[in-house]
Design brief:
By secondary structure, the chain is of the alpha/beta class. The protein is built from twelve helices and 19 strands. Helix 3 packs across helix 5 and helix 7 crosses helix 11. It is elongated and about 80 Å long. It starts with a strand and ends in an 11-residue tail after the last helix. Bound molecules: fe (ii) ion (FE2). The site of fe (ii) ion has 7 residues, from loops.
Length: about 350
């Protein structure tokens, strides 16, 4: 077995491969590590065949769909996952064949309804059902402390005590533990009576994870995160530095159309001398009238530099092959003391 553990903040993801056949699977991949996983698999001589989420994550952005798209491999989740993009839905006890390895799914609802653990040889990937010294929380959508009790005490903790536990999270830099260690020392597992356990889980009062709304939206639908949209736009657009633009404005070069895509009030308060106003919300509607020559060089600017990136990307899609975005925004431009003008342009 070839095995790699990839931590990202408190998240843990795993690359597991068969040394004989080179077939591999990724478990709980995180969106910022896509290149890392692909590079690790290549370094280890593995080919990723499956991407697996142990459950619908609420606290980070899953990379399963992006990797599936890049590598043309199926996304695997438990049968009760709400995500429409899942290609292979596993039922309790079913196996994934990975060369000579067998990954067996155990349905362990509780943290979420679609939580599953995966047993492979000497180890079990426990998702957020069982963590080192803790359990997954049960207060997020589809969480259920009674179901978690059953999943832990009736299923997971009855497995071989020597099985190594690899969870989907660890916030203290630990790589793994064992079923036996968790039974002996995990504080949450000391409440062995159902009611006491359920009562403890209900009274944890944990703070909401950051980005919970966006994580659930994207992980459940397969939609994109805001930063993915921005990164995709940025990958298609050249940028111009503020210093370069300032030099061009001061030299009064007229080969560049500076297009301010903020709203009118922001534009009239202070804009780059010579800039034209075309709010982002009206870009597609007014482009034919306002920008009749697609061969012109256009620089989009906005307040922070994000909306202008989207605008420049849209312009390029519409055929403005010389559209660029300002590397920075009007806020930084003003703070640098660069020249501005207020009111309307003549
Ligand atoms: Fe989770």
């Amino acid at each position: 077995m070839i095995f790699e553990q990839v931590p990202t903040g408190g998240c843990q993801s795993y690359l597991i491969g068969c040394g004989e056949t080179c077939a591999a699977a990724l478990i709980d991949p995180e969106i910022s590590q896509v290149d890392h996983y692909v590079a690790l698999a290549a370094r280890d001589g593995l080919r990723v065949r499956y991407v697996i989420d142990t459950h619908t994550h609420a606290d980070h952005f899953s990379a399963t769909r992006e990797i599936a798209r890049q590598l043309h491999v199926p996304v695997i989740m438990h049968r009760s996952s709400p995500a429409p993009f899942v290609d292979m839905r596993l039922g309790d006890g079913e196996l994934i064949v990975l060369g000579k390895l067998r990954l067996q799914a155990l349905h362990t609802p509780g943290h979420t309804k679609d939580s599953m653990c995966l047993v492979v040889e000497d180890r079990v990937f426990t998702g957020d059902t069982l963590l080192i010294g803790a359990t997954g929380r049960t207060d997020l959508p589809s969480g259920d402390p009674e179901a978690l009790y059953d999943s832990l005490f009736e299923r997971l903790l009855k497995l071989d005590p020597a099985l190594k536990v690899y969870p989907a999270h660890d916030y203290k830099g630990r790589s793994h533990s064992t079923i036996g260690d968790e039974i002996a020392t995990n504080p949450r597992l000391q409440k062995r009576e159902r009611m006491a356990f359920v009562e403890m889980m209900r009274s944890l009062n944990l703070t909401m994870p950051t980005h919970v709304t966006e994580a659930l939206r994207t992980n459940m639908s397969g939609g994109k995160t805001v930063s993915q949209l921005l990164a995709q736009a940025a990958a298609t657009v050249p940028f111009m530095s503020m210093a370069e633009l300032k030099a061009r404005v001061e030299a009064q070069e007229d080969d560049l159309i500076v297009l301010d895509v903020r709203e009118r009030d922001a534009y009239e308060a202070a804009h780059i001398p010579g800039a034209r106003l075309l709010p982002r919300g009206q870009l597609e509607l007014r482009v034919n009238q306002d920008l009749p020559d697609p061969t012109r060089r256009i620089l989009a600017c906005c307040e922070l530099g994000y909306v202008s990136t989207l605008a420049a990307s849209t312009l390029r899609e519409m055929g403005f092959q010389h559209a660029v975005a300002l590397d920075g925004g009007m806020k930084a431009w003003r703070e640098s003391g660069y020249p501005t003008r207020s009111g309307r342009e003549p």
